[in-house]
Amino acid sequence: MIFAGLFVAFWAVSQISPDLAAPFDEATAPAAVSTDPALLPYYAGRSLLRMFIALAFSVIFSFVYATIAARVRGAERIMIPILDVLQSVPVLGFLAVTLPLWLALFPGSALGLESAAIFAIFTSQVWNMTFAFYQSLISQPRDLDEAARAMGLTRWQRFWKLDAPSGAFPLVWNGMMSFGGGWFFLIASEVLTVGQREYALPGIGSFAAAASDDARIDLLLLAAAVMVLLVIGVNFVFWRPLTAWAERFRLGDTDTADPQTSVVYDLLRRSAVPAALATLTRPIGEALDRMMRVLGRTGRRRRRPAQRVPRWGRTLGAVAGIALLVWGLIAALGFVARDVGLEQFAVTAGLGLVTLARVLVVLVFGTLVWVPIGVWIGLSPRVTRFAQPIVQVLASFPANFLFPLFALALMATGVSLDIGGILLMALGSQWYILFNVIAGAAAIPIDLRESARSLRLGPALTWRTLYGPAIFGSWVTGALTAAGGAWNASIVAEVVSYGDTTLTAAGLGAYIAEATAHGDTGRVLVGVAVMSVLVVATNRLLWRRLYRLAETRFSLA
Question: Which residues have CB under 8 Å from 540's CB, separation 6+?
Answer without folding.
Answer: 81, 84
